[in-house]
Amino acid sequence: MSKAIRDVYGEALAKYGKDDKRVVVLDADVSSSTKSATFKAVAPERFFNVGIAEANMCAMAAGMAASGKIPFVNTFAVFLTSIGLVTARALGSYAELPVKYVGAYGGLSDAFDGPSHHSIEDLAIMRALPNFKVFVASDATMTDWLIKNAIDDPSPMYLRMSRDVFPDIYSADEKFEEGKGKIIRDGKDATIIACGLMVGNALAAAEELAKEGISVRVVDMFCIKPLDKDLVLQCAKETGAIISAEEHNIIGGLGGAVAEALCAADAVVPMGFVGVNDCHAECGPYAKLQAKYGLDASAIAAKVKETIAKK
Fold first, then answer.
1. Which parts of the chain fold into alpha helices (H)?
2. For the CA atoms of the chain, what is the radius of gyration?
3. In whole angstroms, what separates CA 258 from the centre of its chain?
4. Rounded mean pLDDT, 9-24
């Protein structure tokens, strides 16, 4: 049975960081929510609870990084990419320090805490920072790899995690590569390029569309930056229509990155955008929020048909 992404993150952090003395973990007094407490249990001397002081936490992490450590900075995505942004820009981006910013409860997954805790602009913010790499976890296997890769890669990074359980997409032995998306279902009529929760929703939409004779390719674009531009252009050429699907504002995130790649290459194909339509979302059960704000499988399927009609 699938585990919550946050639980897998905590376990991976403990597994890969326990015996690596370079790894340090900082948390803004929400370690039971982010699951960084799992690392604390195995390496308490390298765990630092800084309290509700996100800006200070990010500055501390930068100092540790400058001293040869690999800091994992943890709090809710919305606070990490807002209160922590000044430090991320000056000491992560500009100084190119290997700080790993881990945004917990990405998208609408903190369902009942509402607009103050939803994070629907984080990908746009973090991919705009030079030198940053940006990733979105799409299942448990992917999450485990993201943590190991973050330790191995000296770049500053933003890793978006979720509170919730995502369906399993990959087998335990799946191989991943930075800057390379993965075709996880083939099709010829259109391509859905998705990330995070929306990969599973895109697969469900493709299954429903197949019953209507519509063949849809699904790509997991887990690496938002660097983006796999070659795959984007390949899909545009081979299927003739692109639909982005993200648990994020339709402005500036995965859809924006894909559209930029298409425009830069003069690839003229119809494109549809699935995401939160430039508004704040309210409180409620996670599945109902997805349905209300056009993120579920039925909304993706409708956007696919609308986009194919423009071919």
1. 5-17, 31-34, 37-42, 54-66, 77-80, 85-87, 122-127, 140-152, 197-210, 229-239, 254-264, 286-292, 297-308
2. 19
3. 15
4. 97
Catalytic site positions: 54
In this structure, are residues 133 and 153 in contact, taking their beta carbons and an 8 Å threshold? Answer: yes
In eight-state DSSP terms, residue 46 is G
Q: Which CATH number fits domain 5-160: 3.40.50.970, 3.40.50.2000, 3.40.190.10, 3.30.2310.20?
A: 3.40.50.970
The CATH number assigned to the domain with range 182-308 reads: 3.40.50.920
* CA–CA distance, 217 with 94 (Å, rounded to integer): 38
For 27, the token pair is 């948390």
User: In three state form, how does the secondary structure of 240-300 look?
Assistant: CCEEEEEEEECCCCHHHHHHHHHHHCCCCCCEEEEEECCCCCCCCCHHHHHHHCCCCHHHH
| Strand pairing report for 23-27 and 133-136 | unpaired
Is 139:170 a contact under the CB 8 Å cutoff? yes
Chain segment 205-255, per-residue pLDDT in tens = 999 999 999 999 999 999 999 999 999 999 999 999 999 999 999 999 999
Q: How far apart are CA 291 and CA 275, in angstroms?
A: 11
Per-residue pLDDT of 240-249, as tens digits, reads 999 999 999 9
Structure-block tokens of residue 81: 């990419």
